[in-house]
Amino acid sequence: MRIDILTIFPEMFRSVLDASILGRAREQGLLDVRLTDIRPFSALKHKNTDDYPFGGGAGMVMLAQPIADAMASVCGENFRGRRIYLGPRGRKLTTALARELAREERLVLLCGHYEGVDQRALDTCVDEEISIGDYILTGGELAAMVLTDCVARFIPGVLGSAESPEEESFSEGLLEYPQYTRPREWNGLTVPEVLLNGDHAKIAAWRRQQSLLATARFRPDLLAEAALTPKERRWLAEQLETPDEETEG
Known about the structure:
Layout: E1 2-7, H1 14-18, H2 20-27, E2 32-37, E3 50-51, E4 61-62, H3 64-75, E5 82-92, H4 95-101, E6 106-111, H5 119-125, E7 128-131, H6 141-152, E8 185-186, E9 189-190, H7 200-218, H8 230-240
Parallel strand pairs: 1-2, 1-6, 5-6, 5-7
Antiparallel strand pairs: 3-4, 8-9
């Protein structure tokens, strides 16, 4: 899969793209990430990429011309993929959306900066907007890193195990179950016995229950859309019940 990132700060990406899972995926040819600096495409003498907004207001707005020319250079005439602007108005990034994007042949990510991007560039150069959350960043670069990392995990071979991305938080609309490793006892705390007996059916059942509990406690909003059986909902309700305080006689 190829991902092109259009930015005025390409230097921000080097350490992220060269390290850990993303770095290995690139070395193995599973992921091709290319950075394009928007500045050289500016037609202005000093290669400016921003200007004051019409109508007044604080801050600067990114110019349409450099973005359009950079996008045309990267996409060419027969582009097949999706051109995405990382912006707060966009569709929120979820596991389902990341899995969907991972099936694309190519992605082009446009990183905004300053107070935003000239709307004409978005109208003519972008297919959709995606947001990574309801908060404000100084630019789209960090959002592009998050999206790239999230999507890469669903590219076959990147994680080294086809099952890995399906067992992690949010893969089924639930948070992940607790994880443990050696030693069996640490500072007086022990690993749950069910994880040590080798019974894979019991382990799977325990992990499912722990996922339900974790989601109910930390992200109860996710349960409304999670695929739970009636039996699981009854079990979860029983676990979350607060016992009545005994009255003194």
